Amino acid sequence: MNGTRIAGIVGCLASAVFLAVMVPGVEENRFTGGGAQFYTVGPTFVPYFSGALMLLFSVMLTVAPGAGGSGPAEDRTGPGRALLFMALLVAFVLGLREIGFMIAAILFLAATFACFRAGRPVLSAAIAVAAPVGIDLLLRKVLMVPLPTAPFLN
Q1: What is the DSSP letter of 70?
Q2: Which of 17, 40, 150, 151 sees the fewest Cβ atoms within 10 Å?
Q3: Considering only CA atoms, which of 93, 126, 130 is closest in space to residue 108?
Q4: CB-based contact 98:23 (threshold 8 Å)
Q5: d(CA 90, CA 79)
Q6: 71 Cα distance to chain centroid
Q7: DSSP state of 74
Q8: Are 57 and 11 in contact (CB under 8 A)?
């Protein structure tokens, strides 16, 4: 069993816990004041959607033909790369409140591209900046989902 399959199994377990335990808690803690319903989707739409995608991608990682270690020798790196990515992801989540979504996402993508040696540095830097900006605009302006902002930017 290699790092890809281990990461897939851990992702499956984590997303299953997220979908079964954490997302229903969002609806339970929701304030249901006497006002009108303003949103067509509830507060659990985005967590359920992202959790389902995480579960789907984790299953794909686990059952992919190359996940068993049958590929070239340089692909068999053990759990080190998967653990590195999980550490970067934990740092991203912990940094959201302190430095806000935009800065944390740019740093996360830049660190991920640097650690995993993405092909073109200029293209990687452009994606590391453009993707968080696009996601921020989509969530804030279109879906009206507030994202954490850095306290020093308010």
Answers
A1: -
A2: 40
A3: 93
A4: no
A5: 16
A6: 27
A7: G
A8: yes
Model pLDDT for residues 49-90, shown as the tens digit of each residue: 888 888 898 888 888 776 555 555 445 556 777 788 888 988
The one-letter amino acid code at 99 reads I
CA angle centred on 43, ends 50 and 135, rounded to 5°: 50
- The pTM for the full model equals 0.58
The identity of residue 83, as a single letter, is: L
- Spacing of C-alpha 118 from chain mean position: 18
Structure-token pair, residue 3 = 């790092």
DSSP 109-149: HHHHHHHTT-S-HHHHHHHHHHHHHHHHHIIIIIS------
Within a 10 A sphere around the Cβ of 98, how many other Cβ atoms? 12
Q: Quote the tokens at residue 93.
A: 């989540």
Sign of the CA dihedral with 125 first, then 81, 57, and 99 last: negative
Two tokens, residue 109: 């993508």
Residue 30: φ, ψ to 5°? -75, 135
Helical H runs in 40-79?
Answer: 45-63
List the structure tokens of 120: 């073109």
Write out the H or E segment, with its range, that includes residue 106: helix 80-115
